Amino acid sequence: MIRFLLGVIIGILIFFFFVYFGGGKTVKRIGEGLTDTGKKMEVLEETIRKEKEDVGKGIQKKFFKEEKEIQKKSQ
User: Fold this and answer.
1) Closest CA to 65 of 75, 53, 73, 51
2) What is the percentage of the chain residues whose pLDDT exceeds 90?
């Protein structure tokens, strides 16, 4: 019972702090910041994905060249 009452009191305090510190305006500012951060992360992910593909292709080319050289030497 004590935990329940403590939870209700803390919930009421959080609600009043939310209203006191700007309410919807604060949530809107935080949301806009998160949206900007999300867009930046998408750009970074795309850049990393492209670089990963380029590196993978380079490694495959090098690996296949080495395999062909080994096959030529053994013939």
Assistant:
1) 73
2) 27
d(CA 45, CA 70): 37
Residue 9, number of CB atoms within 10 A of its CB: 10
Distance, CA of 67 to CA of 73 (rounded, Å) = 10
DSSP category for residue 71: H
pLDDT tens digit sequence for 34-65: 888 889 999 999 999 888 888 878 777 776 77
Q: Where are the domains of the chain?
A: 2-74
Look up tokens 């949206």; give the residue: 35
What is the pTM assigned to this prediction? 0.47
